[in-house]
Write a structure and sequence with these properties.
By secondary structure, the protein is an alpha/beta fold. Helices cover 37% and strands 15% of the residues. The radius of gyration is 19 Å and the shape is globular.
Length: 323
């Protein structure tokens, strides 16, 4: 079976497109603002709101797949509060409508961090919002824990921001934190129950948007005892292989808590990144990749339902220019 895997679509609805420069406006320090603009322009993405055509390109190439997994981050989250923002909600709704129109029941959806909200890079605004969770579950129809069986191969997706809530907790509203903690406990309990239901001959492929969640998943004895059954863990979030390679090099650095929220969050993730190893991590880049390398694309996951051959993931690159 051939399964298309797409991550970090970052579609911009008309309302989000009207917010160009949103990240810079959130940074009050002028030298830092100029530095971030240069980073965005020359390395990351000069205009993150101008790549809606990548979704068209993906759908054209992947529409005949046996199945599709979308691994999170459907909007550009220009208000930094996830789909509680109407503009970001419209972006996510447009993406899910198009994916469902093409794949129908051949589709599973994983949460990204931008569905729920997170603070801006160096701006210190935004964060997780309770309304974003409610809209994802009840309006966008995204189950927090999904699973799909193809013979002996079992695919499953978790909510990385929930699993890694200890890292994201400082970005939540104080009055909403108890609800997030309750949802996390329920989510992990459901994940344990899922793992305990696996047969010894089953092979597991995990979908986790943000690898920050992996060390917290490894704290689960039910997962550790099934380590041999875990074929691979497919992540997104990092957008480009160069960031993934840098993350492996920086694994184990101490947390840095005096340079703002974003540096704290990223350094805390990297401090435990050595625990990524047992997950057999594979990255599916964003559809755009980064500005410098233009290395975007999507994944093709080949699985053998009878379990005779190991599953394989390959990346199909997308052309940078508009079709």
């Amino acid at each position: 079976m051939r399964i298309a895997v797409v991550s970090d679509i970052h579609h911009a609805s008309p309302a989000e497109q009207r917010r160009r420069g949103h990240e810079s406006r959130a940074i009050r320090n002028r030298p830092l603002r100029l530095l971030v603009r240069a980073y965005r322009r020359f390395f990351w993405l000069a205009d993150p709101l101008a790549h809606n055509h990548r979704l068209d390109d993906f759908l054209l190439r992947a529409r005949d797949a046996d199945h599709c997994v979308a691994n999170g981050d459907y909007s550009c989250d220009t208000a930094f509060v996830g789909v509680s923002d109407n503009a970001a909600y419209a972006s996510a709704q447009q993406v899910l409508d198009r994916l469902r129109a093409v794949f129908g029941t051949r589709l599973d959806l994983t949460y990204g961090d931008h569905e729920l909200g997170k603070m801006s890079l160096f701006g210190g605004v935004g964060g997780l919002r309770r309304l974003s969770w409610s809209r994802c579950v009840h309006e966008l129809g995204m189950p927090p824990l999904w699973q799909r069986r193809f013979g002996r191969v079992v695919l499953a997706g978790v909510v990385s921001s929930l699993v890694a809530l200890p890292v994201f907790a400082p970005e939540t509203l104080a009055e909403e934190l108890p609800a997030w903690e309750r949802w996390r406990a329920e989510h992990l309990a459901a994940f344990r129950q899922f793992l305990e239901g696996l047969a010894p001959e089953d092979r597991l492929i995990l979908f986790v948007h943000d690898p920050t969640a992996l060390p917290f998943l490894w704290e689960e004895p039910a997962l550790q005892s099934r380590r041999a059954q875990l074929e691979m863990t497919i992540i997104g979030h990092l957008h480009t292989p160069v960031i993934y390679r840098a993350s492996r090099i920086l694994a184990g650095i101490p947390p840095i808590r005096f340079l703002g929220t974003s540096i704290r969050r990223m350094s805390e993730a990297l401090s435990r990144a050595r625990l990524w190893k047992p997950f057999r991590v594979r990255l599916v880049p964003s559809l755009t990749g980064c500005q410098l390398l233009k290395d975007g694309g999507f994944g093709w996951l080949e699985v053998d339902p009878e379990g005779r051959r190991p599953s394989q993931l390959t990346i199909e690159r997308l052309p940078w220019g508009k079709p």
